[in-house]
Design a protein that fits this description.
Elements: E1 3-11, H1 20-42, H2 47-59, E2 80-86, E3 92-98, H3 104-114, E4 119-121, H4 124-131, H5 145-156, E5 180-185, E6 191-197, E7 218-220, E8 224-230, H6 232-238, H7 240-251, H8 255-267, E9 274-280, E10 285-286, E11 293-299, E12 305-308
Parallel strand pairs: 3-4
Antiparallel strand pairs: 1-5, 1-11, 2-3, 2-6, 5-6, 7-8, 8-9, 9-10, 11-12
Helix pairs in contact: 1-2, 2-3, 3-4, 7-8
Bound molecules: aspartic acid (ASP).
Length: 310
């Protein structure tokens, strides 16, 4: 028995903007990433390999805000954050602000397996990736017209950073966000989580969100694995991912109840718009969100597959 869930970011996804063609592309992208992870789990591979494979697939897809499709910073480049955690061993690796690494999640794994550290920032993260022969890419690989237009829109609206949020009408509340992630329970009962993001459109001053921070945007232990998406600052303040684990471990809450408390009772009241995906050691899944939607797909312990947006 194994279980897998993935997400492609949460936000207020305006139904009117999601044309049938675009929706089909999103669904196909989620389906492909789910299949990549599922194939490995079916073969008996570790959860860690499955979440990494699913996230690589989403990083390579320009539709999602991670890797190739990452949003632009205020200065017009890309700063990529990613983390990956192994529940069985508690080992974790992460990178923040990487600029050239094609698949930041692979660099996070390098940090975990080839250094004594947990989190490396720019430029060291890129340096480590190059040293180990991970593919790097020139800036134009990360250029997508849609993201560039979003940056122009953000600059024009004066939404320079989070402190200006609310100062201008939100044209498309989803323009600034997005993240990808995966959680898995493998056939041996081990869990893993992986999250990767370009962060927020128009971010400045080397801003780093919750994604690469163990406990905030990514967490895995022996009982639960979690990957978050949403307003990173709120998820960091809430230590959202680890809180799910704590509520289960110390308060005895079920997976579903712990996730509900964090997403709806804790994050929502402080403006922490977003959601998370989680899997327990028993193979139960939870994919709650308090935003208009969350791109997501899962394969439950019974082998049932689903893709959903709203
Ligand atoms: N959590 C990500 C960040 O704050 C963004 C997102 O998930 O939409 O960088």
């Amino acid at each position: 028995m194994y279980a897998l869930a993935i997400h492609g970011g949460a936000g207020t996804i305006a139904r009117a903007e999601l044309t049938p063609a675009l929706e089909a592309d999103y669904r196909a992208g989620l389906q492909a990433a789910l299949a990549a992870g599922r194939r490995l789990l079916a073969e008996g591979a570790p959860a860690l390999a499955a979440v990494e494979a699913a996230v690589i697939c989403l990083e390579d897809n320009p539709l999602f805000n991670a890797g190739r499709g990452a949003v632009f910073t205020h200065d017009g480049h890309h700063e990529l954050d990613a983390a990956l955690m192994d529940g069985a061993s508690g080992r974790v690796g992460a990178v923040a602000g990487a600029r050239e690494i094609q698949n930041p999640i692979r660099a996070a794994r390098l940090v975990m397996e080839h250094t004594e550290h947990v989190l490396l920032g720019y430029p060291g993260a890129d340096e480590l990736a190059r040293l180990h022969g991970l593919p790097t890419q020139p800036a134009d690989y990360f250029f997508t017209q849609r993201r560039f237009d979003q940056l122009q829109q953000a600059i024009a609206a004066g939404r320079m950073q989070l402190d200006h949020a609310g100062s201008a009408p939100v044209v498309d509340a989803n323009w600034k966000k997005g993240t990808v992630g995966a959680v898995a329970r493998d056939q041996h009962g081990n869990l893993a989580a992986a999250t990767s993001t370009g962060g927020m459109t128009n971010k400045r001053f080397s801003r780093i969100g919750d994604t690469p921070l163990p406990g905030a945007g990514t967490w895995a232990d022996a009982e639960v694995a979690i990957s978050c998406t949403g307003n990173g600052e709120d998820f960091m303040r809430a230590v959202a991912a680890y809180d799910v684990s704590c509520l289960m471990r110390y308060k005895g809450l079920s997976l579903a109840e712990a996730c509900r408390v964090v997403v709806h009772d804790k994050l929502a009241p402080v403006g922490g718009e977003g959601g998370l995906i989680a899997v327990s050691a028993a193979g139960e899944l939870a994919l709650p969100f308090n935003s208009g939607g969350m791109y997501r797909a899962w394969c439950d312990a019974a082998g049932e597959e689903r893709v959903a947006i709203y």
